[in-house]
Q: What sequence folds into this?
C-alpha cells in the first residue's frame, strides 16, 4: 500500500526531480480494461444557487490546477516493448478544459450525456474537463466535472473543486476534518477455497445502444437510533443489498451471495491531499438468507456494521495482491494488457455484484462567493460490465444525493427507474424497522 500511495502524491519535490510517474496498480488495470463502448468516466455536478463569473472561474480553476500539479498529467507515449505506462507531468493544461455550453433547455441532460459518453483524452493534460451549465428560467448554474477514472478518482476531483471554490471566493476553507481513525481489528480468517460466484444483477430490458445511463434523486438522510453502532453508510449498504435481491427475485434469478464493493478513502482531505486514484476497495457479502423478504433489518444493520468496521480497519493493497502481480513490470505492457483482459473474462463470475460509493457528508463548504454555496452535489461512478450497476451517494445541505448509473447493455430506462424507486423504499425501511 505504501509503495502505491507514494506514486500517487502530488508533493512538489516529486514534480521537481522527475517529470514521469509510472502508472500505479489501479491506473494500469483501468488502462488495460478500457472499453470504448463504456467510457471509464466519473461525473460530478455541483449545483449553485447563483451565476458564475466566467473570467473569475477561469482564473481560479487554472490556479487550482497549478496548486495540485499531480493533476496536470498526460499519458506518455510508450515504445512497443515498454514495461510500464507512464504519466508525464506538465506545466500547464493542453487546450481549454473549461467550457461554457449555450444556455438552453435540456442543457444539463445533454451535459450529463457527454459526461457518460465522452471521456477526456488521456494523452492531453489534465484528464478532466469542467463545464458550466445554465438553463433558461433558472437563477443558478451547475459546475459539471467529467473525469477519466484511469487517472483520478472522485475524492481527488472533489478536492480540486474545493480549491477552485476557495480561490474563486477568496475565502480559505476552515480546517478539514481528519480522516477517521481506523482502529485495529482482528485479522479475518482466510479461506483456502475459491468463493462461490457472486450474484449478477439480473438483466432487464436493455437499450439498443451501449454505454451508461444515469438517474439522480434527492432524499432525506435516514435517521438512526440514538447511540447506534451502525452508520448511514451501513444503512446504504443494506438498502443496496435489499434492492438487488428484490430486483433479482422479480427477474427470476437464482439465489446467490451478493457482494458489494465499497471504496475506502483514508487520505487527508486538506490542501495536501494526494491526487490520483487513492481509494482501496473492500467487499461486503450478503448471503441469500440475509436478504430474504422476512429479513430482520435491525439485526442485518448491526451485523453489517461489525463487518464494515473490521474492513475499514484492515489495510490492504488497493486491488489485492493478485492484481499487483498482474502489473509487475516483468512482461511488456502490451502482453500484460492481454493477460489482464483474459483473467478479467475468466474471473467475471467472481466479480462483485455491484458497487456502492458513499462520499458521506461533503467535507468542503464549496463556497463560490457571489454564486453561493453548493446546495447539491451528485457524483456517479462508472458502471461497466460485468457489474453493470453502481450506486453513488453524497450528503450536502442535510440532504442525501443519490446517483444510480447502469450499463445500457444490461438494463433499460424503465429498469433504472424501478431500481431507484426500490432503493428509496428500502433505505426508508432501514429507518423504520431498525427502531
A:
Amino acid at each position: 500500500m505504501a509503495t502505491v500511495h507514494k506514486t500517487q502524491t502530488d508533493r512538489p519535490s516529486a514534480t521537481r526531480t522527475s517529470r514521469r510517474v509510472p502508472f500505479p496498480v489501479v491506473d494500469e488495470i483501468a488502462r488495460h480494461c478500457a472499453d470504448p463502448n463504456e467510457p471509464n468516466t466519473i461525473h460530478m455536478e455541483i449545483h449553485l444557487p447563483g451565476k458564475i463569473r466566467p473570467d473569475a472561474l477561469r482564473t481560479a480553476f487554472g490556479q487550482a490546477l497549478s496548486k495540485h500539479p499531480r493533476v496536470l498529467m498526460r499519458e506518455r507515449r510508450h515504445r512497443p516493448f515498454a514495461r510500464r505506462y507512464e504519466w508525464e507531468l506538465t506545466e500547464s493544461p493542453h487546450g481549454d478544459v473549461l467550457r461554457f455550453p449555450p444556455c438552453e433547455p435540456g442543457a444539463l441532460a445533454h451535459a450529463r450525456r457527454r459526461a457518460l459518453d465522452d471521456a477526456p483524452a488521456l494523452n492531453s493534460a489534465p484528464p478532466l474537463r469542467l463545464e458550466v451549465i445554465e438553463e433558461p428560467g433558472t437563477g443558478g448554474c451547475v459546475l459539471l466535472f467529467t473525469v477519466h477514472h484511469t487517472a483520478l478518482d472522485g475524492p481527488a476531483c472533489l478536492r480540486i473543486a474545493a480549491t477552485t471554490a476557495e480561490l474563486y471566493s477568496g475565502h480559505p476553507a476552515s480546517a478539514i476534518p481528519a480522516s477517521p481513525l481506523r482502529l485495529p481489528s482482528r485479522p479475518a480468517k482466510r479461506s483456502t477455497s475459491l468463493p462461490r460466484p457472486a450474484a449478477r444483477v439480473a438483466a432487464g430490458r436493455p437499450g439498443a445502444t451501449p454505454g451508461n445511463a444515469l438517474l439522480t434523486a434527492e432524499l432525506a438522510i435516514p435517521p438512526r437510533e440514538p447511540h447506534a453502532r451502525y452508520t448511514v453508510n451501513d444503512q446504504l449498504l443494506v438498502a443496496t443489498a435489499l434492492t438487488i435481491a428484490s430486483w433479482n427475485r422479480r427477474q427470476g434469478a437464482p439465489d446467490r451471495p451478493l457482494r458489494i464493493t465499497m471504496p475506502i478513502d483514508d487520505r487527508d482531505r486538506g490542501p495536501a491531499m494526494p491526487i490520483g486514484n487513492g481509494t482501496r476497495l473492500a467487499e461486503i457479502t450478503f448471503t441469500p438468507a440475509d436478504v430474504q423478504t422476512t429479513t430482520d433489518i435491525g439485526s442485518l444493520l448491526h451485523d453489517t456494521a461489525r463487518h464494515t468496521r473490521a474492513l475499514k480497519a484492515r489495510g490492504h493493497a488497493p486491488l489485492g495482491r493478485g492484481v499487483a502481480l498482474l502489473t509487475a513490470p516483468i512482461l511488456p505492457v502490451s502482453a500484460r494488457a492481454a493477460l489482464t483482459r483474459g483473467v478479467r473474462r475468466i474471473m467475471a463470475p467472481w466479480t462483485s455484484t455491484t458497487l456502492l460509493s458513499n462520499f458521506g457528508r461533503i467535507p468542503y463548504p464549496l463556497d463560490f462567493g457571489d454564486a453561493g454555496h453548493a446546495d447539491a452535489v451528485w457524483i456517479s461512478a462508472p458502471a461497466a460490465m460485468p457489474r453493470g450497476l453502481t450506486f453513488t451517494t453524497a450528503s450536502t445541505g442535510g440532504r442525501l444525493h443519490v446517483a444510480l448509473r447502469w450499463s445500457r447493455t444490461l438494463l433499460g430506462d424503465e429498469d433504472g427507474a424501478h431500481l431507484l424507486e426500490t432503493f428509496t423504499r428500502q433505505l426508508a425501511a432501514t429507518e423504520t424497522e431498525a427502531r
